[in-house]
Amino acid sequence: MASKSVAFLHFCTKAGVSQRDKTEMTTKVFCLDFAKQTSAHVLKLALLFASFCLGACGGSSGSAGNALDLGTGTQLQILDLGAVSKSATASALAPDWWRGAFMQIYVRAYQDTDGDGKGDLKGLIQRLDYLQGLGVKGLWLLPITESSDRDHGYAVKNYRAIEADYGSQADFDLLLSEAHKRGMGVILDFVINHSSNQHPLFLNSSSSAKNAQRDYFIWQTPKPTGWQIYGQDPWYASNWANGFYFAGFTSSMPDFNLRSNDVESFHHDNLRFWLNKGVDGFRFDAVGNLIENGPGAWEVQAENHVVMSKVRQTIMQYSQRFMVCEAPANSNAFAQADSCGSAFAFDLSGSVVGAAKGDTASIQKLADYYKTRSANLAPFVSNHDSFAGDRLWNQVQGNLAQYKMAAASYLLLPGTPFIYYGEEIGMASSNALSGDAALRTPMSWTADAKGFSTATPFRALSANVNSQNVTQQLSDNNSLYQHYKQLLALRNTQLALRSGTYEAAWAFQKTMGFQRVAGAEKIMVVLNFDTQANALNVSNLTPGETWAPLMGANVSATVSSAGVLQLNLPAQSFAVFKKN
């Protein structure tokens, strides 16, 4: 009896429970125990309370001593655990819908309809016409599942539930239906590497070394040494003092044990849950961090590709689905068919922005990139993570000419391009915020917050909301919005730009060019990043052939008898031609 009291008080102290509450809880629990009234059950509930308190603080980093044997621990209900069989596989979308441009959308920051200052699914539905008009063919939604962080969403508590702030399953079903009517696919952000430390699976796993769900996560005793990931020790003590769990990002997001067949089944069942509802695919978070083989081998391990290859097999059992992976350390490997099949081109973004600024080395790298890389690498210039770069407006310091050149560069390249919400109007990050939050501000629909919400927004606005907003740009023919709309219309109507090969690429000083080829269809893109006009000679072409202007030029071009095409490009401009 006394030992139980000591252990319980120890946990309450670590959880930050007040002295008054500790005294009251201890008296109630152990008086019941003394009276032989379900002592074990009550003690487990009391300790579970302490675990929740600790979890809310991000976990414990203390020793694993003073362990209290709870047998098999807790058996909390797991609402997202259970077999899901494949059902309908039909798709209402065009066969190559996923080759169009995607818009990455943070639902919390997009459009509020219920007046709580936070965006929701109904708000996104209201803006689908805007996205369709822009020419977007796919939507990537940052996590919309129930999470403990109630913000970015990557600390998932239930893989089958919609975050309450965003709406209901019915709202999501309507979003899918309305997006599909407009020819747009919807992919969800799927967090495969880790969950929240408040997920019932982890609470069960943490409650006892004997728990049936212990191996869903990675546990070691004693604590491993010599580890450093992103500047911190990734091993944390269990709140129940029975071992140390691995969490590569933060103590509040423990890593799954992806060597476990049970974990594999858990994820595949949850993928099928959403696929059966009609979801068009997934973006997978942190796939370079799935398997660890020691303190010096915790990233881009060979086993990661095995995990993602199996995931891809499950998804591709459904027709016309698409998946893309986040793997900054080795994107090209994850873009291969025996892995994810597509991945973000993290090592391209810097060259796109550098080229737009006129850096000759970046221009050469940009021209050469797809000569040796997979055509399934998805280009982008910014996203929700600060490690991937600031918003494009900030990267080019608001230089509109450079901004437009960067957009033209990556939207006309191979791969599926991803636009970060607000990029099409030149949204800046927030001056009032720092880190990732500064990049995840409410969408600038109007010159103030009223276009986003009738209430005070959950977060500060973009620094340039007064000058760069949708209302202002829709009626301006020279705006960034119109520039993006024209580029996407070009991509959507030209097969070679959507899916053609990358050929005949060259770079010379501050200019470059390439061709996109699909069968007999050939399109030529020529870019001048210089701040002065340039006369260009594009060689190695077929003598006598003619190229019709599609964008950026107003006259046809004819190849000389020597196979040379002569062009005059104004400063910081580009031209797109199609072979007649």
Task: Please provide a written account of the structure.
The structure is a single chain. With 580 residues, the chain is α/β, with parallel strands linked by helices. It folds into 4 domains: 57 residues; 329 residues, Glycosidases (TIM Barrel, Alpha-Beta Barrel), CATH 3.20.20.80; 64 residues, Oligo-1,6-glucosidase, domain 2; 83 residues, Immunoglobulin-like. Helices cover 31% and strands 17% of the residues. It contains 17 helices and 21 strands. Strands 10-9-5-2-1-13 form a 6-stranded parallel beta sheet, covered by helices on one side. A 6-stranded antiparallel beta sheet has the order 14-15-16-21-18-19. A 3-stranded antiparallel beta sheet has the order 6-8-7, with no helix packed on it. A hairpin with a 6-residue loop joins strand 7 and strand 8. The longest helix is centred in the N-terminal third of the chain and has 18 residues. The N and C termini lie far apart (90 Å).
Give start-end ranges of low-pLDDT stretches.
1-45, 50-67
Shape: globular
Major beta sheet, strand line-up: 10-9-5-2-1-13
Strand share of the residues? 15-25%
- Classified in CATH, the superfamily of the largest domain is Glycosidases
- Average residue pLDDT: 90
CATH secondary-structure class of the largest domain: Alpha Beta
Please report the total strand number as a whole number.
21
Query: How helix-rich are the residues, as a percent range?
Result: 25-40%
Q: Kindly give the count of domains.
A: 4
Architecture of the largest domain, according to CATH? Alpha-Beta Barrel
CATH topology of the largest domain: TIM Barrel
Alpha-carbon distance between the termini? 90 Å
